[in-house]
Amino acid sequence: MVALSNVQFGKTNDDIRTVQKALIAQGHPIPGGATGHFGEQTKAAYRAEQLAQGFKGDAADGIPGRVSLTKLGAKAGFRVGAPPTHPHGNGHVPSPVPGHKVTFEFFSRGPYAWKPDGVGRHTGQDFAAQPGVPVVAVRDGTVAWSNANGGAYGQWIGLRADNHHVYTYCHLSQRQVKDGQKVTAGQQLGKVGATGNATGPHLHFEMSKGSSWSYGDVAKPNW
Predict the structure, then answer these.
(1) Which long-range contacts (CB under 8 A, 24 or more apart) does 49-58 make?
(2) What is the pLDDT of residues 150-170, one digit of tens each?
(3) Which residues make beta-bridge pairs with 21?
(4) Which long-range contacts (CB under 8 A, 24 or more apart) does 92-95 make?
(5) What sign does the CA torsion over 77, 83, 84, 87 have?
(6) Is the pLDDT of residue 9 over 70?
(7) Measured CA distances, 185 to 69, 121, 209, 212 (Å)
(8) I need a surface site. Which of 4, 24, 177, 183 has the fewest CB within 10 A?
(9) Can you list the domains of the chain with their CATH numbers?
């Protein structure tokens, strides 16, 4: 069983080694071999697999998602673990902006300060929506911060979730929770806005790699 949350750029573990072996078996070479570390070679091989699956443009970004990883597993003989559930909250939350989908993906190229591979990359996912649309907790957790001191991120909220990741909600027009407040999955945290460095109203949504947030120490959001 492979956990999607384990197969992320910059991590090192046995799940990545399993995926690397699968990529090599599908004809996508990784010069360094199946080391268990997800670096640039693995990202290039995974992008080749995404293209082989029919992904196009920014969707073929070399960053595993549930759909592409499940398809690879079906060919290679491994299964992908089910999405996390939320037994103490309001059940599975499909989006931090209910009824809205990702409009600009994690790791997309652009004029950004984060340059893990030498070019500007997007540190999170954007969900375009009208000002005032609610944003919600994707998991149970505790509000790590809620303030207007995010600089380019504008008004922002950090949610320290029960899976030990920090989810960051940025460019908000309103915040409805306070530092230290306990929240449940699906609970409203604030509203979409365009504060900080934003070209229009949207939620910029990030997930930390580990249990604390710092700029650029992020992974493709999943919950």
Answers:
(1) 49/23, 52/26, 52/28, 58/105, 58/108, 58/109
(2) 999 999 999 999 999 999 999
(3) none
(4) 92/185, 93/136, 93/137, 93/138, 93/139, 93/185, 93/186, 93/223, 95/127
(5) negative
(6) yes
(7) 25, 29, 20, 19
(8) 24
(9) 4-76 (1.10.101.10), 86-223 (2.70.70.10)
Q: Which residues contact 28 (CB under 8 A, 6 or more apart)?
A: 45, 46, 48, 49, 52
Assigned token pair, 189: 């945290």
In Å, the largest CA–CA distance within the chain is: 51
Residue 64 has pLDDT above 90, yes or no: no
3-state secondary structure at position 144 = strand
- Nearest Cα to 98, choosing from 130, 133, 124? 133
Question: What integer best gives the mean pLDDT of the chain?
Answer: 91
Q: Collapsing DSSP states into helix, strand and coil, what is residue 166?
A: strand
217 vs 211: CA distance, rounded Å: 10
State the virtual CA torsion across 97, 98, 104, 107 in degrees, nearest 10: 70
Mean pLDDT of 75-97: 74
Q: Confidence band (pLDDT; 50, 70, 90) for 57? A: confident
pLDDT in tens, 181-217: 999 999 999 999 999 999 999 999 999 998 899 999 9
